[in-house]
């Protein structure tokens, strides 16, 4: 790429008028996902979520920032350049990944029954893998979904969380999306042989498999032991380690089991470097691993791996919590009754023969997560959700969660996993990164 072409490309990128920060885009995605979940939520192997993603015009994803000539030059040499610009928009960590040529181009296509699956590229680190793909056809894809998705490593299923989204607009002939794989323990890359398999709901129930090999070296994770004890409204938390890899920064923490309140979620979390640059939470729905109920968990942040700040400021706030002993709901499905509901839970609960409906008319915007999922029946047997739906408006948010109740002994107790009842305190900690 000569200097004239490079300058022209940078000028083109910087000339696009854009909204601030992706706020409208993220809100649009949330609304479309909610609408699709209201129509259909299905359980798919190992956590693959058949949610929806709004397809947004290329220019609308860009954020008003100055694009470096090095980044422009790198982008111009990679296939699917417009999708890559969408990838890096508003995310300096992703811009760094592309600029440092850590994004690995695969560009491999397999076609079957008039459906083509293209594996465009990948980003891998010790804690996960993101695959960027395109599904296309000479005819409209409308009505076609992905029913199964699997990624294997060296012939074995990956032990971790896999998530993806697939949504087709009316008349659309191609869909671009990504598969995100997260693992709790460092991934073993002694073998880099992988395979992506997707099954579609077309008339042929088409299955397409793409084997691929990662060839680039995997960047090592940077680890910073913390061993800091903090108090949140008298509740003890240990901040154990901050690890930074190309795809995410991860904060590992432990909860004191002697706490009088049951911590549920942390709704506000950010890392800020000495230049005031914020590393926000992950925007693709993957917020961490484990639960605060388990006593040990990890929080994910966007990562600026290829930058080298001297220190970070960690800020945590909006701790969801309920008093221990008042952090569950008990239900008798046979009698269709709620036997116990904490006074802090300001919801209308309705028990149906095979589902529970709960509706919020206060704090509607905060009530977008499930109140509970798995329960324990009177015989100690786990009771699993078989699906559900979610609808919302300006004045009401409603969840309907279905259960397989065959052989269940009533009553069933559900531990509350999320509810917007907040502790007032916040946490702020300076983390030096000099090694």
Care to describe what's here?
Residues 221-333 form the DUF5643 domain. InterPro entries: DUF4179, DUF5643. It comes from Paenibacillus montaniterrae. Keywords: Membrane, Transmembrane, Transmembrane helix. The chain crosses the membrane at residues 47-67. The chain is mostly beta strands. It folds into three domains: 104-213, Immunoglobulin-like (Sandwich); 222-324 and 422-432, Sandwich (Immunoglobulin-like); 328-415, no CATH class. It has five helices and 28 strands. Strands 1-2-3-7-6 form a five-stranded antiparallel sheet, with no helix packed on it. The chain is globular, with a radius of gyration of 23 Å. Residues 4-66 have low confidence and may be disordered.
Brief account:
This protein is mostly beta strands. Helix content is 12%, strand content 43%. The strands form six sheets. The protein has a five-stranded antiparallel beta sheet, with no helix packed on it.
**Distance separating the two termini:** 38 Å
Which CATH class of the largest domain applies here? Mainly Beta
- Helical content (DSSP H or I, runs of 4+): 10-25%
CATH topology of the largest domain: Immunoglobulin-like
Strand order of the largest sheet: 1-2-3-7-6
- pLDDT average, as an integer? 80
- Work out the helix count: 5
**Approximately what portion of the residues adopt beta-strand conformation?**
35-45%
Q: Please state the second-level CATH architecture of the largest domain.
A: Sandwich
What is the molecular shape?
A: globular
- Rg: 23 Å
Low-confidence stretches: 4-66
Main pleated sheet: 5 strands, antiparallel
């Amino acid at each position: 790429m000569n200097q004239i072409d490079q300058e022209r490309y940078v000028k083109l990128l910087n000339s696009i008028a854009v909204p601030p920060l992706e706020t409208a885009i993220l809100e649009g995605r949330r609304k479309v996902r909610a609408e699709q979940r209201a129509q259909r939520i299905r359980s798919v192997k190992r956590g693959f979520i058949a949610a929806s993603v709004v397809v947004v015009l290329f220019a609308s994803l860009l954020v008003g920032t100055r694009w470096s000539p090095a980044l422009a030059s790198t982008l111009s040499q990679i296939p699917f350049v417009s999708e890559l610009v969408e990838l890096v928009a508003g995310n300096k960590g992703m811009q760094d990944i592309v600029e440092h040529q850590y994004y690995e181009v695969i560009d491999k296509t397999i076609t079957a029954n008039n459906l083509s699956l293209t594996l465009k590229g990948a980003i891998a680190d010790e804690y996960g893998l993101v695959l960027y793909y395109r599904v296309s056809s000479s005819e409209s894809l409308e009505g076609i979904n992905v029913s199964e998705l699997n990624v294997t490593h060296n012939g074995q299923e990956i032990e971790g969380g896999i998530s993806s989204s697939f949504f087709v607009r009316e008349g659309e002939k191609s869909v671009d999306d990504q598969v995100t794989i997260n693992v709790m323990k460092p991934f073993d890359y002694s073998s880099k042989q992988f395979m992506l398999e997707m099954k579609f709901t077309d008339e042929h129930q088409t299955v397409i498999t793409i084997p691929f090999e990662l060839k680039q070296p995997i960047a090592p994770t940077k680890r910073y032991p913390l061993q800091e004890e903090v108090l949140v409204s008298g509740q003890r938390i240990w901040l154990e380690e901050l690890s930074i890899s190309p795809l995410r920064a991860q904060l590992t923490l432990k909860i004191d089991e002697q706490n009088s309140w049951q911590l549920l979620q942390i709704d506000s979390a950010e890392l800020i470097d000495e230049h005031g640059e914020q590393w926000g939470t992950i925007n693709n729905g993957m917020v961490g691993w484990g639960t605060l109920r388990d006593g040990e968990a990890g929080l994910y942040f966007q990562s600026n791996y290829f930058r080298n700040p001297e220190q970070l400021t960690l800020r945590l706030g909006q701790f969801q919590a309920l008093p221990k002993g008042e952090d569950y709901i008990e239900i008798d499905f046979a009698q269709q009754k709620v036997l116990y509901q904490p006074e802090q839970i300001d919801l209308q609960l309705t028990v149906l023969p095979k589902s529970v409906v709960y509706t919020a008319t206060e704090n509607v915007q905060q009530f977008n997560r499930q109140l509970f999922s798995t329960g324990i029946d009177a015989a100690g047997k786990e009771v699993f959700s078989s699906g559900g739906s979610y609808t919302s408006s300006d004045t009401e948010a409603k969840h309907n969660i279905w259960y397989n109740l065959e052989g269940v002994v009533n009553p069933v107790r559900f531990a509350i996993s999320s509810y917007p009842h907040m502790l007032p305190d916040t946490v702020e900690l300076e983390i030096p990164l000099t090694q």
